[in-house]
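Hi R.,

Here's the chain you asked about this morning:
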Amino acid sequence: MSDFDFSRAGNILRNGAVALNPLRGTLALGSLEYIAIEVFISKVLRIILKIDTKDLIELATVHAVSLAFMGGAAGFVDPPASIASAPLFQQLKDGAKGIPAILLAQWTVDTLNRGFHAPFSKWGIQDILVSSASKALSRPIFSLLYPYLPTPLQDPFNLTETLVRKQTARSTLRRNRN
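And the predicted structure, written out as tokens:
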């Protein structure tokens, strides 16, 4: 435990702020694309499975907060591959790397709304599974759409992807930080 670098503890707040900062227009747009596809997939899954217990605002908030945790919470695995060139199964694995982030985000948003409590007392197991599935599935689905997007929509997403890769590489959970 003595090798833990406490100077990096505040990175979660900075990571959350930088991704959605309107002054960083391109990065903020890429983050909004990232969040929108995840919320859309989550909402569709919830409707199909008839467990539509969350409104769009709550889903958007949770997925936005998860972006702050994306790189750091997945620091124990390799950074995600390129969305433009990796095979579909790799995209699914890379999407699943975001599951710790969505779980942390669900608990964080719930704690902000209700105060300290037993984790996931408001989010049932179905909600947790659907959110995890939406996080994992959104990446391969978006990778199928990505080649058809115009460059002005690809570039912001690429910038957000770069941010997540850098955060993953520098995570305190990573043994070999670059």
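Residues 1-10 have pLDDT under 50 and may be disordered.

Let me know if you need anything else.
M.
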